[in-house]
Amino acid sequence: MPYEYQCQQCKARSPERHDRRTDAELEQEEHRASEHGGLAPAAGDGVRQVHDAARGDGCLPSGSFLFVLFLIVALVSNCWGR
Ligand SMILES: [Zn+2]
């Protein structure tokens, strides 16, 4: 999963996600240097892992949801047929 840097104080976030944690931490250092004079922001900041939307992980829950919906519809229509 990719990494993302987020600064709570500036409400700022990485423009793009990083494959390696060290890249995101580098961005953290650069942001602190340019926006906070090299200090850590009082409101907090940090690197976190984010879901890779492009990989299609988000499709799995909706796919199984549709399957359950199909089973319910099949069951109900079977009951009505009798
Ligand atoms: Zn900041």
From TrEMBL:
- Report keywords, A-Z: Membrane, Transmembrane, Transmembrane helix
Q: Name the source's superkingdom.
A: Bacteria
Q: Specify whether Transmembrane is a keyword of the entry.
A: yes
List all membrane-crossing ranges: 64-81
Basic and acidic residues compositional bias, start-end: 13-35
| Start and end residues of each stretch annotated as Disordered | 1-48
Q: Where is the composition biased (Polar residues)?
A: 1-11
Q: What is this protein called?
A: Regulatory protein FmdB Zinc ribbon domain-containing protein
Whose protein is this, by species?
Streptomyces tricolor
